[in-house]
């Protein structure tokens, strides 16, 4: 039985579910900008705000940690490279590699910023349907000349929808290989090859089946999109978010 991942839409009646998708996309852009420009105190406030949103959606923390194992590897890599290549007072030395205190601090803050980005993305995807995402992106791209907004919106919405399928297939392949004793292999390159080849094969096969299914149903990007209507509560929430953004940026 397939399990939900943190990158899938979860139906609900919370405020985040009912908010207009254009406000959600604007909020996501604002949060991303704040995540890379806020000070330490601003990051604390921003992280607290995102955690409150995360708890409102009632997403399992264990499921989130299980689905973000690759993110932890990226964070370890970022922390390690920042610790080595940032000049400062040396703390540890392993041969020619020197880890500095300033590097550890810089790497930890950068990892913190990345975590806030991922958390904001999870909140957005979990509270926004694929059709809403397509309509919102299409609305933002429509005024831009030379951009086929409908095609771009369809491609982005399919990419968002495809991500949980890829994670699900990766989990299935990992469990199947564990049951066959794949963890006994000590060579990490060989293990990565044995894992990635069947994963890419299944991803491409799924993409081919999706294309055939869409063509057999005469799919076109020129479809009737859901009506989007800004409510007063959406405008109020955006004003509050912008005020909080200014406060976070100036802290």
In short:
The protein has helices at residues 15-18, 21-37, 40-56, 61-67, 69-85, 101-127, 130-141, 149-179, 188-216, 232-250, and strands spanning 90-94, 97-100.
Give a written overview of the molecule.
There is one protein chain. Strand 1 (about 90-95) and strand 2 (about 95-100) form a beta hairpin. The chain is built from ten helices and two strands; from the N terminus they run αααααββααααα. The chain is about 70% helix and about 5% strand. Helix 7 (about 130-140) runs antiparallel to helix 8 (about 150-180) and helix 8 (about 150-180) packs across helix 9. The chain is mostly helical. It folds into two domains: about 1-130 and about 230-250, no CATH class; about 130-220, no CATH class. The termini are far apart. It has a two-stranded antiparallel ribbon with strand order 1-2.
- What is the beta-strand fraction? under 5%
Mean pLDDT: 80
Helix/strand class = mainly alpha
Order of helices and strands: HHHHHEEHHHHH
Helix content: over 70%
Estimated radius of gyration: 21 Å
Query: N- to C-terminal separation?
Result: 47 Å
Number of strands: 2
Largest sheet: 2 strands, antiparallel
Determine the number of helices (DSSP H or I, runs of at least 4 residues): 10
Q: What shape does the CA trace take?
A: globular
Oligomer: single chain
Question: Which parts are unreliable, with pLDDT below 50 for 5 consecutive residues or more?
Answer: none
Spatial ordering of strands, largest sheet: 1-2
How many domains make up the coordinates? 2
């Amino acid at each position: 039985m397939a399990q939900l991942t943190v990158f899938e839409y979860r139906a609900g009646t919370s405020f985040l579910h009912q908010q207009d998708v254009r406000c959600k996309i604007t909020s996501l852009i604002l949060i991303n900008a704040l995540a890379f420009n806020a000070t330490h105190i601003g990051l604390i406030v921003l992280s607290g705000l995102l955690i409150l949103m995360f708890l409102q959606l009632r997403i399992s923390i264990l499921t989130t940690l299980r689905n973000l194992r690759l993110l932890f590897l990226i964070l370890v890599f970022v922390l390690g490279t920042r610790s080595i290549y940032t000049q400062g007072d040396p703390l540890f030395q392993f041969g020619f590699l020197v880890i500095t205190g300033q590097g550890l601090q810089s790497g930890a803050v950068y990892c913190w910023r990345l975590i806030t980005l991922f958390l904001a993305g999870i909140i957005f995807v979990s509270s926004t349907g694929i059709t809403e995402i397509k309509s919102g992106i299409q609305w933002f791209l429509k005024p831009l000349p030379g951009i086929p907004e409908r095609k771009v919106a369809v491609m982005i919405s399919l990419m968002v929808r495809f991500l949980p399928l890829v994670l699900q297939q990766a989990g299935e392949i990992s469990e199947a290989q564990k049951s066959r004793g794949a963890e006994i292999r000590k060579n990490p390159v060989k293990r990565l090859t044995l894992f990635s080849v069947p994963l890419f094969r299944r991803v491409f096969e799924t993409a081919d089946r999706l294309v055939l299914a869409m063509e057999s149903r005469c799919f076109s990007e020129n479809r009737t999109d859901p009506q989007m209507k800004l409510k007063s509560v959406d405008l109020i929430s955006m004003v509050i978010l912008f005020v909080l953004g200014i406060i976070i940026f100036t802290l």
